[in-house]
Automatic annotation (TrEMBL):
Region annotated Disordered, chain positions: 163-209
Keywords: Membrane, Transmembrane, Transmembrane helix
Source organism of this protein record: Streptomyces netropsis
Record protein name field: Putative membrane protein
Transmembrane segments: 12-36, 56-77, 89-107, 133-155
Compositionally biased region (Low complexity): 169-184
Length: 209
């Protein structure tokens, strides 16, 4: 994929942070509702809780999770971060893919089932309310973890990232040697493209934005 221009990268980063952290906020709301649904003795409150959860499920879960995934993919493939070059990016990709699938294939059907039960006046089965409490606990922990690794960018390069960097350095050294042989002045042939060592990438990158 072609590298993003600076304004495009900044714009997509804003979309990425808004959607992915918005997904985290939505999960916090689902957790409050899930706790209330699992603990209330009032059938009216329970009905209101699961109807509200279904509304969030219908309107927000899939758009937010897909936007976080797609904007993250564009940022990875369109910048020197790469998709499989840095461990924190690669792990985020797989975790987000798993969370998106679990939301679509497990959480939403459970929300629909709970809302259908309260609509018919039946209470929600204990197992379903437990599931609808456990799901936001697990996903909230996951999104907090992903936010933390996004900001801290830990663990350095993957094996693929190390190979990529070595290849770039070799290509850079060859170009520099070629330029020197041709008698040109000693200017560096390889310019900084933002692909910094993992330990300094976040600092250098943040400073450039
Ligand atoms: C719930 C899921 C996600 C959350 C909470 C999240 C959160 C964030 C946050 C807060 C940042 C900004 C960090 C900073 O600028 O210091 C960020 C950046 C980034 N994220 Fe995510 N992200 C998620 C999913 C993904 C996915 C699935 C990918 C890749 C496939 C990804 C790739 C990236 C990349 C490459 C950056 C750095 C962009 C740049 O500096 O140009 N993210 N993410």
């Amino acid at each position: 994929m072609r590298q993003l221009t600076r304004p495009a990268r900044r714009g997509i980063l804003v979309v990425h942070v808004v959607t992915s952290v918005g997904w985290l906020g939505l999960t916090l709301g689902l957790l409050v509702l899930g706790i209330t649904g699992a603990t209330t003795a009032s059938p009216q409150t329970q009905a209101a809780v699961y109807r509200s959860m279904k509304l969030f499920g219908d309107w927000l879960i899939i758009p937010l999770s897909l936007s976080a995934l797609v904007s993250g993919l564009v940022l990875s493939l369109g910048t020197p971060w790469g998709l499989a070059r840095h461990r924190w990016v690669y792990l985020k990709f797989w975790l987000t893919l798993g969370a998106t699938l679990a939301s679509a294939l497990s959480l939403r059907p459970a929300l629909n089932e709970a809302a259908a039960s309260v609509a018919t006046g039946d209470g929600v089965a204990a197992a379903t309310s437990q599931d609808l409490l456990a799901a936001p606990i697990v996903s909230l922990s996951l999104y907090v973890f992903m936010t933390a690794i996004s900001v801290l960018k830990p663990w350095g390069l993957t094996a693929r990232g190390r190979r990529h960097r070595a290849a770039r350095r070799t290509a850079g050294a060859r170009t520099t040697a070629g330029v020197r042989e041709a008698g040109a002045p000693r200017t560096p042939a390889v310019h900084d493209t933002g692909d910094q060592p993992p330990s300094t990438a976040s600092i250098a990158d943040t400073a450039k934005r």
